[in-house]
Design goal:
Elements lengths: L3 H9 L1 H4 L5 E7 L4 E6 L3 E8 L5 E8 L11 H6 L3 E3 H7 L16 H15 L1 H4 L6 H13 L6
Antiparallel strand pairs: 1-2, 2-3, 3-4, 4-5
Helix pairs in contact: 1-5
């Protein structure tokens, strides 16, 4: 039986990406987050709402490997082969300034946020949705710059 989050994704997010051949791959819900994965033959999208810790919506974009989500067993595996990135990084790169206000960090705002992110993907990320990941080097620079600002733990 679909969760409330899965139903919201189907109603407010999926219509924007279905024209690119996306179908639901899986859905999970636990105490930490609700998540739904969608994919077509080249690209995967993981839509998750982490209410407990971050209280916000995240969308990860994946370059699929043989039409499957890549497996990353460690952080260094991911760093060596960056096949995923956060939608926030793509939005920043493409000049879309979206700020999470306190109002948008509530579950009741999910329809609005899902609609905005779906529209952005549909209109500003056709390349990625259709398997053109030539943007990855630029995304990698954003990720590396952010990583430099993270304090190192001893």
């Amino acid at each position: 039986m679909p969760t409330n989050f899965e139903t919201l994704c189907k109603k407010y997010f999926l219509p924007s990406i279905v024209k690119y051949g996306f179908l639901k791959d899986s859905a999970v819900s636990d105490v930490w987050a609700d998540a739904v994965k969608y994919k077509n033959s080249t690209t995967g999208l993981e839509v998750s709402f982490e209410e407990r810790e971050y209280n916000r919506l995240f969308i990860m974009i994946y370059r699929l490997t043989e039409a499957e989500f890549p497996k990353h067993s460690t952080v260094s595996d991911f760093d060596a082969n960056p096949n995923r990135f956060d939608l926030d990084d793509l939005m920043a790169l493409r000049g879309c300034d979206f700020e999470y206000s306190a109002e948008l960090r509530q579950r009741k705002a999910l329809p609005k946020v899902l609609t905005v992110f779906g529209a952005f993907l549909c209109h500003q990320a056709k390349d990625v949705l259709t398997g053109n990941f030539s943007i990855l080097p630029e995304i990698q620079k954003i990720i590396e710059a952010r990583a430099k600002n993270i304090p190192k733990q001893n």
